[in-house]
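name: query_chain
kind: protein
chains: 1
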Amino acid sequence: MEKEFTPDGYNIGMNCGKVAGQSVMHFHCHIIPRYQGNMKNPKGGIRHCVEGKGTY
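structure:
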């Protein structure tokens, strides 16, 4: 990912265990490349990787 997409940063997200929201009990990890200016306010990390999807 580093060589092909050259992101400025990353968000890494996992839900580990039923109490944490995991619904299928296997390893599942999201690695999301982030770029300077791709979000107005990236505060909140993984919840705000997609515009309008972080408030729930």
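note: The CA atoms of residues 16 and 27 lie 8 Å apart.
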